[in-house]
Amino acid sequence: MDITKTHKVSGGTLAYCTHDSATTQTLMTLSVFTPPGPGPFPVLIWLSGLTCTEDNFTTKAGAYNAAAEHGVMIVAPDTSPRGPGVADDQAYDLGQGAGFYIDATQAPWTPHFMMESYVTKDLLSLIADNFPADISRIGVSGHSMGGHGALTLALKHPDLFRSVSAFAPIVSPTRCPWGEKAFTAYLGESRETWKHHDASLLMESGAAKGAYDDILIDQGTADNFLAEQLKPELFKNACAAAGQKLTLRMQEGYDHSYFFMASFIADHIAWHAKRLK
Fold it and tell me: How many angstroms from the chain centroid is the CA of residue 56?
């Protein structure tokens, strides 16, 4: 791992890092905020949305005052592998910047687009080896495509994560244009395979039953993707059927931007901190 630059912020240290990933077979980038104090600290993994890099959350979310207050480390990885020889697409919702936090099985996306394995293996190992992190206390959150990633990874890997929240997540990618396009490319035509990467369908199947006391989702009512792409009611219904407590907050007038996340990120950090004690 190489630390490319650091900044002091909110009494702690923000580091931008690069490292060679065995799972993506590329150089990956991330940011890590370490709060003041000796640690070890609980960790919140933040997964960003379509078109984002590790820098969007880092510079726009305004998360670090709350993270310092609650003693939470925040790790924000890039959203996909990048670089020469890595497959891409001209559209914003496929290819580099659009990894969807799944492991691709179809050419030309495999072997580089292995984002589920990257987050749950390489990234956690890197943090454990290089920072004062307590990897027995890890939460996961994210926005939009990253909200999909947070929900699905938490449901599929309850042994790794102790808390989960999301902003404006894609809760059922098998039933929206963004997900259908990405899953067809990365996973092939079989919708049966897709089910394993759909938070609403995972919840309906009983995934991670009893692992999380509550799940927090914030969704803006003025989000222009709400009806066609996000469909929070599908996850709400799945949680109700499965007996999973869900706190779904429909935030009046908020859109899909980082202004929305900056308005409520302190709530999410405090919520995770309480569950990661």
Answer: 13
